[in-house]
Amino acid sequence: MRVVSSDPTKLAESVHVINDEATGVSGVIAIHSTALGPAAGGCRFWHYDSHAELVRDAMRLAQGMSYKNAMAGLPLGGGKAVLQKPTGEFDRATVFRVFADAVAKLDGLYITAEDVGTTVNDMLAVSEHTTFVAGLDAAPGMAGGDPSPWTALGVFESMRAAADAILERDLSHLTVAVQGTGSVGAALCRLLRAAGAELIVADVDEARAQRVAEALGAKVVNANEIHAVKADIFSPCALGAGLNETSIPQLQARLIVGAANNQLATPADGDAVRNRGIAYAPDYVVNAGGIINVSAEYLGETTEAVRERISQVPARLLAVFDRAQKDQIATNLVADQMAQELIAQGRR
Ligand code: NAI
Fold this sequence. Notes:
Layout: E1 2-3, E2 14-20, E3 25-33, E4 39-40, E5 43-46, H1 51-71, E6 77-84, H2 92-105, E7 110-111, H3 120-127, H4 148-167, E8 175-179, H5 183-194, E9 198-202, H6 206-216, E10 219-220, E11 233-236, E12 255-256, H7 268-275, E13 279-280, H8 283-286, H9 289-299, H10 303-310, H11 313-327, H12 331-347
Parallel strand pairs: 4-6, 4-7, 5-6, 8-9, 8-11, 9-10, 11-12, 12-13
Antiparallel strand pairs: 1-2, 2-3, 3-6
Bound molecules: 1,4-dihydronicotinamide adenine dinucleotide.
């Protein structure tokens, strides 16, 4: 493995290049920050047109993990591994053996887990070669396993607190429009329904939306319309960039709280949302339940410890809203500032 950069003033503390000539496996492990602890973040297995693009994505994602972990109050820094997915045939076992060796060589600087394109089985394979891996199966009472219900819980608790603070209403008096009824979206809908909220749901996979609607008595709309329906809260739980120059002018909700990563198409869209008088809960602040569960698994903690950490997420969100109001700036910028401050404190 080659280290490309070890200058902490750069976007990443270090970028470790994986280029195994014998097998052709290639990628990078980007370490954004270890100020608060070992750099934790998943391994993405995806095809990129160029190595430069792959490195840029790894560094951007590693920074995102640093910010998310810092705001979640975890004793972890941020990093991300990105492996180039070959276009032709490849041997999956070889890919993850080479990757595991690269993780092992970093000797605890970086802790990996699943991400887009990788599975629990891949991480089990990695765990045969290194202990610096999480996202495996959970033992009874211990943290681990599917992070989605924990992510949904953090989003739900955040939504409840934000509804109270911003809309001054209890969820039982509110309508929530949920975009995407996958693992997190569906779990969130169940929590919202139990709290008495009215639900409007949509998914590009219509059968999924129908299943949730039938089970919970929700209304289904077309996936192209969900952001624009009359609702108090909009909850993006599908893919990224759902808040963009087209969707933002059409929003009717006054509050946005959802699980999707990278909801804003650009940072400037945070200003566009704010200018419309809509309160936006920064995605990585409220969707941290999953990484909280994964890190607790790695640290050998119980599900109770996970619940306790997730219960602290709403207070952080309210602190973001308070500072955004006081400084008159967008909430996404405030969250970044707060994360940077926590990381800087960790460096001292
Ligand atoms: P998932 O793949 O189970 O569900 C996503 C759902 O969104 C699918 O049902 C898909 O058909 C639907 N969808 C895609 N594009 C859509 C569109 N334009 N309109 C409506 N529906 C659309 O994924 P999961 O795990 O539920 O994650 C949801 C989001 O939350 C993703 O952005 C993910 O990165 C993020 N997230 C998930 C975490 C987890 O613990 N699973 C943790 C943190 C973030």
